[in-house]
């Protein structure tokens, strides 16, 4: 029985709520997510606008960059489900460290700015986005990645400094990218960038980096709330038990 319990541990982390990789619910989530992402990309092709012909294409938008990373994360996840390959599963979980917080950031910024004034994120020169497409771009990726993280992934935790470094690198890398696109196109993808001076744009990207770091911390905390925070495994007489970390346990003897 101990051998069976040990084999189960090698297939699924004790804190992982549902089995993954698997050809069941995990594969279904990844398939549905990829279908939504494919619909979003198809919408860009079937509904061309001046952005299609500009330098950088729609990858000028953080939304589309995040969508591309989300699609890559779920594609690797689906391959892991179909092959039951643990290495692919580990790659998917590594990608989600960046893609899940980024999609949360995109949704927070988009819907927050849109609530203030839609003209901050939706250029008036472009046709309005239908509700279905709007949700597929700015809501479903975040919801799908968070569901994958909470239900089908082992716990991942990234310390504050690495999280801040990753978020800062993404934020300011994107800033350099849109400035390059501006030199060719003479316009910014999001109208809010054109309303801000250089210093104000730097402040906006710095704030975005902090917000993405906060999203990472919140996701880690939420995972603990949903799945627990047990961290130490013990095996005795075929029983697999989890023991919570106890503060101040160091130095305690005789237990």
Concise overview:
The chain has 255 residues and is mostly helical. The protein is 67% helix and 4% strand.
What does this molecule look like?
Pfam families: Far-17a_AIG1. With 255 residues, this protein is mainly α. The chain folds into 2 domains: 19-95 and 112-150, no CATH class; 155-227, no CATH class. Helices cover 67% and strands 4% of the residues. It is built from 10 helices and 2 strands; from the N terminus they run H-H-H-H-H-H-H-H-H-H-E-E. It has helices at 2-11, 25-46, 50-53, 62-83, 86-116, 131-138, 140-152, 160-185, 191-195, 198-227, and strands spanning 232-236, 239-243. The protein has a two-stranded antiparallel sheet with strand order 1-2. Strand 1 and strand 2 form a beta hairpin. Helix 2 packs antiparallel against helix 4. The longest helix is centred in the middle third of the chain and has 31 residues, at 86-116. Residues 1-9 and 232-255 have low confidence and may be disordered.
Order of helices and strands: HHHHHHHHHHEE
Estimated structural class: mainly alpha
Q: Structurally, how many domains make up the residues?
A: 2
Strand order of the largest sheet: 1-2
Strand content: under 5%
Tell how many strands the DSSP assignment holds: 2
Using the alpha-carbon principal axes, give the shape: globular
Helical residue percent?
55-70%
Biggest sheet character:
2 strands, antiparallel
Separation, N- and C-terminal Cα atoms: 27 Å
Using only CA atoms, what is the Rg? 21 Å
Number of helical regions: 10
Mean pLDDT: 87
Unreliable stretches covering 5 or more consecutive residues: 1-9, 232-255
Membrane topology: Multi-pass membrane protein
Pfam families: Far-17a_AIG1
Main location: membrane
Keywords: Membrane, Transmembrane, Transmembrane helix
């Amino acid at each position: 029985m101990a051998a069976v319990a040990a084999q189960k541990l090698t297939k699924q982390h004790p804190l992982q709520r549902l089995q993954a990789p698997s050809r069941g619910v995990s594969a279904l989530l990844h398939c549905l997510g990829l279908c939504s992402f494919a619909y979003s990309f198809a919408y860009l092709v079937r509904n061309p606008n001046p952005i299609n012909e500009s330098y950088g294409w729609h990858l000028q938008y953080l939304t589309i960059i995040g969508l591309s990373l989300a699609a890559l994360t779920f594609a690797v996840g689906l391959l892991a489900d179909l092959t039951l390959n643990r290495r692919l599963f580990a790659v998917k979980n590594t990608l989600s460290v960046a893609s899940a917080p980024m999609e949360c950031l995109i949704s927070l910024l988009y819907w927050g700015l849109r609530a203030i004034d839609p003209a901050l994120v939706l250029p008036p020169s472009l046709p309005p986005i239908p509700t279905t497409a709007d949700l597929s771009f700015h809501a479903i990726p975040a919801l799908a990645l968070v569901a994958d993280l909470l239900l089908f992934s082992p716990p991942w935790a990234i310390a504050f400094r690495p999280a801040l470094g990753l978020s800062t690198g993404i934020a300011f890398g994107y800033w350099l990218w849109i400035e390059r696109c501006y030199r060719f196109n003479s316009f910014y993808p999001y109208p809010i960038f054109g309303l801000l001076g250089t210093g104000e744009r730097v402040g906006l990207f710095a704030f975005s980096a902090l917000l993405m770091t906060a999203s990472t911390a919140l996701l880690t905390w939420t995972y603990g709330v949903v799945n627990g925070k047990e961290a130490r495994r013990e095996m005795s007489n075929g029983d697999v038990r989890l023991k919570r970390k106890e503060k101040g346990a160091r130095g305690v003897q005789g237990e």
